Amino acid sequence: MNHASLTGGNGKSASAGAAWDALPAPEISEKEFLSLRRLIHRQAGIHLSPQKKELLQARLAKIIRSQGLRSYQDYYRRVMADDSGRELCQLLNAISTNQTAFWREPAHFQLLSQEILPAWRQQRRAGLCWRFWCAGCSSGEEPYTLAMVLLENLSPEEVKNVRIYASDLNTQVLEQARQGIYPAARTAPLPLGWQTRFFQKGVGRQEGFVRLKPQVRELVEFFHLNLMDDFAFREEIDLIFCRNVMIYFDKETQAGVVEKFYRSLRPGGYLFLGHSESLCNIRHHFTYVKPTVYRK
């Protein structure tokens, strides 16, 4: 909520709104933490351990101050009373973690280019539509890296049959991702040739930034998705990236999400997890390929 809406709601001026921002947020009580913790788990599957109490307080402090609320219980009530879902969306944006990078965990991209794509060609899948999904795409570096890998390894005719879907819970990072604009330093992990081929350098006020060229951006379709919701694609997916997302879920939630991934994939399709994730101790129907890589 901005200062103008604060003025309309309680008569405070813009300067008074700024004063609210300067005030320290109240301490979160154990009861308030438990209420918000349960809400977050129910709505987003994110499991907050008792040790995350201070983290939650820090993430929500700015919202509490900007709305002039006296307690986290007041904030909880506001979220629950908002039928539009905007308050819940703001809460989930605040607590979601968004760490990503270009060329992150490169072994997956190398496996795709060196083994999976050649195997698909041998299976005469080259003429078919290839569908990829980055679940938990954050600010877009992962799906754009995937797009560059495909542009580097596929013929123009094959690229015409490619589509990359990219989803995230956080609506703010999705807006950043759609723009495809990043500090130039972020591209350092990529091959130098790719930095020239796939990016435009900013000039003037955009100096120090780069933007993905249209040929890369056009391959990716971003959309908002909560993995707790039911989801179904119009067509089967060939490969799913869900890396460093399920570490925030408990085992039961992980099993439910993995089952939905399984149903979304075509027979023979792949699921890639993050380097610290596995399906050990989770019920699933996948076949193990190698660490963090599974096949339907």
General description of the model:
The chain is of the alpha/beta class. The protein has two domains: 3-95, Chemotaxis Receptor Methyltransferase Cher, domain 1 (Orthogonal Bundle), CATH 1.10.155.10; 106-295, Vaccinia Virus protein VP39 (Rossmann fold). It has helices at 3-10, 14-22, 30-44, 53-66, 72-81, 86-95, 106-122, 141-153, 156-159, 171-179, 192-198, 214-217, 251-264; strands at 130-135, 162-168, 181-183, 199-201, 209-212, 220-224, 237-242, 265-273, 287-290, 293-295. The relative contact order is 0.11.
Strands, helices and their partners?
Blueprint: H1 3-10, H2 14-22, H3 30-44, H4 53-66, H5 72-81, H6 86-95, H7 106-122, E1 130-135, H8 141-153, H9 156-159, E2 162-168, H10 171-179, E3 181-183, H11 192-198, E4 199-201, E5 209-212, H12 214-217, E6 220-224, E7 237-242, H13 251-264, E8 265-273, E9 287-290, E10 293-295
Parallel strand pairs: 1-2, 1-7, 2-6, 7-8
Antiparallel strand pairs: 3-5, 4-5, 8-10, 9-10
- The name CATH uses for the topology of the largest domain is Rossmann fold
- Please state how the strands of the largest beta sheet are arranged side by side: 6-2-1-7-8-10-9
Describe the global form. globular
Largest sheet: 7 strands, mixed
Topology as a string of helices (H) and strands (E): HHHHHHHEHHEHEHEEHEEHEEE
DSSP helix fraction: 40-55%
Count of the separate structural domains: 2
SSE-based structural type: alpha/beta
CATH architecture of the largest domain: 3-Layer(aba) Sandwich
What is the number of beta strands?
A: 10
The named CATH superfamily of the largest domain: Vaccinia Virus protein VP39
Terminal-residue CA separation = 45 Å
- Average pLDDT, rounded to a whole number, is 89
**Alpha carbon gyration radius:** 22 Å
